[in-house]
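Input/output pair, single chain:
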Amino acid sequence: MSHDDADRPAAPADPGPLDGAPAWWCGLVTLLCIPVISNVVAVAAVLVYRSAARERLTPTGAEVVRRAANWQLSLLLYVTVLITVHVVVLASGAVEGASFLPFGLVILTALGLLVYNAVLCVLGAARASTGRLVAVPLALPLLR
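Output:
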């Protein structure tokens, strides 16, 4: 071993096949609670991970990432629609004199989706790390 070799860091070992769990962890970015923006960041993170890890994913890992990406894209769509409805209702003046419940359901639904997303991301990542899949009933099949 020459002196030059001692100064050079060792090459990182190949981590082997990936299980896709980080795709679910990316979804926790939505906990920043910046509507739509945090959703866009989460979608971008999942899609970047999907692109970068595609070659090393196990078949189950590829399905994990597909499900995580479909859920984050669906969540972005749902939150965008809810925010749009909220703004339209506010702009129309329909809330004057109205009780909280009809109007507040939009906000409560968005908060419910935030909690559902947090639980789903943790559960999805935990299952993916053991080679199992999680069912995502609210996800639209946007990616194949």
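The helical segments are 3-7, 21-26, 37-53, 59-92, 100-129. DSSP finds five helices and no strands in the chain.
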